[in-house]
User: Which sequence fits this backbone?
């Protein structure tokens, strides 16, 4: 269950609220009783991508861009096989 605090309490007890977030608790900040923000832990970014890392690992068939006549016919409303 989320812990809801008002803006004044959030400003006064920010360190305590951050510790709660680090423990995995949900903290919602409300203004005049209406939730306006949620404190969430920062998720570390993944490893940087290296361009070309998959080079040579894939295969594209020679007929990749050839559409069978039956598929073209189906797009024009001809449902015969």
Assistant:
């Amino acid at each position: 269950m989320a812990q809801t605090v008002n803006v004044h309490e959030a400003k006064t007890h920010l360190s305590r609220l951050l510790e709660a977030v680090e423990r995995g608790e949900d903290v919602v900040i409300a203004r005049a009783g209406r939730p306006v923000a949620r404190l969430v832990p920062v998720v570390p970014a993944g490893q940087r991508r290296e361009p070309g890392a998959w080079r040579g690992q894939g295969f594209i068939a020679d007929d990749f861009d050839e559409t069978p006549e039956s598929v073209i016919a189906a797009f024009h409303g001809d449902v015969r096989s």
